Amino acid sequence: MIAVDAQRLLGRIRELGAVGRDSEGRLIRLAASDTDRLGRDLFVGWLRQAGLDVAIDRVGNIFGIWQSPDNAGQAPLLIGSHIDTVIDAGIYDGCYGVLAGLEVIETLKASGFSPPRPVAIAAFTNEEGVRYTPDMMGSLVHAGGIGFETVLAAVGTDGSVLGQELARIGYAGDKEPGFLKPHAYLELHIEQGPVLEREGVPIGAVENLQGISWQRITIDGVANHAGTTPMSMRSDAGHAAARVITFLHDRAKASNTPTVATVGTIRFEPNAINVIPSQAVFTVDLRHPDEQRLQAEEAALAACLEQLAVAEGVTISVERLARFEPVIFDIRIVELIEAAAKNRGLGVKRMTSGAGHDAQMMARIAPAAMIFVPSAGGISHNPREHTEDADLVAGANILLDVVTDLAK
Amino acid sequence: MIAVDAQRLLGRIRELGAVGRDSEGRLIRLAASDTDRLGRDLFVGWLRQAGLDVAIDRVGNIFGIWQSPDNAGQAPLLIGSHIDTVIDAGIYDGCYGVLAGLEVIETLKASGFSPPRPVAIAAFTNEEGVRYTPDMMGSLVHAGGIGFETVLAAVGTDGSVLGQELARIGYAGDKEPGFLKPHAYLELHIEQGPVLEREGVPIGAVENLQGISWQRITIDGVANHAGTTPMSMRSDAGHAAARVITFLHDRAKASNTPTVATVGTIRFEPNAINVIPSQAVFTVDLRHPDEQRLQAEEAALAACLEQLAVAEGVTISVERLARFEPVIFDIRIVELIEAAAKNRGLGVKRMTSGAGHDAQMMARIAPAAMIFVPSAGGISHNPREHTEDADLVAGANILLDVVTDLAK
């Protein structure tokens, strides 16, 4: 069996991870920023060095295409992920998949393999969605889910306009978004969760991706004096919010299913120690890999809110912030991943992706699946994000095998 | 029976309530500010007009003293409250008690009453505690609970220093704090709660004041991805905080006692929609008129936190922000208030003050009690704060009667 060049792959992950550090050493390469440009320049240099054709589309998605006159007419096999980061990021999220894809192509090229179709690697713009919304932007545009004019007009958290920033850093390309129609799509990624590590399994064959429901809930009660208002005469918006949080937690925990429910943000008004909150605003993040179950969770929350409004004398309004249906990945590719792992003597587990990935957008236009490797402690979006070198190399070799199969 | 001049009293309440409005019409007379100076100047003008001796102490407490050569050696009967306000205040909180006290003295003077001891009215500095902490500052200094040098060095929310601000607005007086040793202390105040209105009783004879326990609780869990972290593997600081809120609410509500428990402020870290909170910081305001019961409530909260730390895998730290023991007012004065109400054919109810007042400080150095009048809807610290004119006048007449009794 051929194998990737482990030192080249690991070296590049570290080299890219050193680009975009601030004065405190924090890794920050927000989409279309000056540090993102530095990361892109490094990656494009490696693409050219590998002899790939470099193409950049109007939203800054970067493609490195390995094709020959013989196979140029065929739909390419596409590998992808992203190289933008969150604030104070780890070095693996996204970058690992992009650099492993490049590594796989270089390995195959060097091996004398002559695929009947092109193989390409993509780095999609603004997967993280920290500076501009929505997240997974570049792949969403590529899959035709949103117009490129719309996202180029996106205004960032810093007031910048994405289109202007892409032009400024030299990554407003000329390719029409979606120009490359993939035969299939593969993405290798760190799990960003604790399951593989906990179970001691090195390879995840990702068969689906959770549906995501994001809602913002506003509860309006009545501000009143914390000392003079008897408990029986209160309309306490903060207490009502706490009831929702415990309801969601208890229901998800008791369900014995993959349901996850998170209240990550909260704000009270007037937020004074001796005033009963007149208002509580919080977000709910609900996820489930099955659309019907996700809808059932949303309905249970709605019923809880309705009862609470009566019981607590509050008014409740709900705003939908985001909603993605679950994604079912291509079962044949999932089976190829499993077979490749077994063939290399590696444990493998079918699993669900709890996080969003570019693969979920690409699954709209091509058979797609993902490969996961373990994340130490399940930690991600954090400088402590870590995957063992052996796991990184193992994942890249599985990608190599599946690409070889799919490119045939 | 003599009675106060209702029109003069109501007119002054409205006149003082018009002083210190901002461009949006909001009433803001924070302690030692330019608008506080305007309110003080108006009040001092009325004191002089009434022929009272004006004295100002080092922390800006204003006293209007009605004394004669015959009674100047006796301990004076002191009436007091405050004329500083919160931001966007109503016109009654504090000001009503101060202006009714002045009104009572003028009425008694005009009636030819010759009391055997001086009668004085006090407006204490910074009762509200919005600009400088602690609240009830002027009366606390007067009662010897804190040194005047300490409070003069207090730095405000706007970075100002109280001592400098008092000097700037001309109210850094020369009297030693505590110079006036009261024979007894009376305070007339709006209830700031819903009880009198709900029960249709115009006069409250305040027999005690709740003890107050303020704590800040910090819960530390582990930030993690909202999608990839199974419910069973979470240490969710936000969920743990919600458990505390529902525990406190359910316990207080079920207790069928005057216990009140309020969580008025909360903050999550990192406060991101898709990140399990690593930290939740919130405040707890517990009140009870009985010290042993208040201690029992504090102990129940501590036990809850201890169990929660184990059950949720979080660490919890508690910081005490403020603690006042309950105050028992002087039963003889409470009985005088009840008798005066009955004598005027007014309903009266013994009650507990849920809010803090200058009277709780003065109770440390003299027999003290308070008279309450109804607050519409229990609303206070709000422009909708309202008490009917008839109730305002009735309260002032009860104060007149009790002052007449006590001054004898």
Automatic annotation (TrEMBL), chains A, B:
- Keyword Metal-binding listed: yes
* Residues covered by the Peptidase M20 dimerisation domain: 210-309
Q: What Enzyme Commission number does this protein have?
A: 3.5.1.87
Q: Which UniProt keywords apply?
A: Hydrolase, Metal-binding, Zinc
Q: How is the cofactor bound?
A: Binds 2 Zn(2+) ions per subunit.
Q: Which domain of life is it from?
A: Bacteria
Gene Ontology MF, one: N-carbamoyl-L-amino-acid hydrolase activity
Binding site residues for Zn(2+) 2: D93, E128, H381
- State the needed cofactors, names only: Zn(2+)
Q: Which residues are recorded as binding Zn(2+) 1?
A: H82, D93, H189
Family membership noted in the UniProt record: Belongs to the peptidase M20 family.
Q: What is this protein called?
A: N-carbamoyl-L-amino-acid hydrolase
Taxonomic source organism: Mesorhizobium sangaii
In the record, what lineage is assigned to the organism producing the protein?
A: Bacteria, Pseudomonadati, Pseudomonadota, Alphaproteobacteria, Hyphomicrobiales
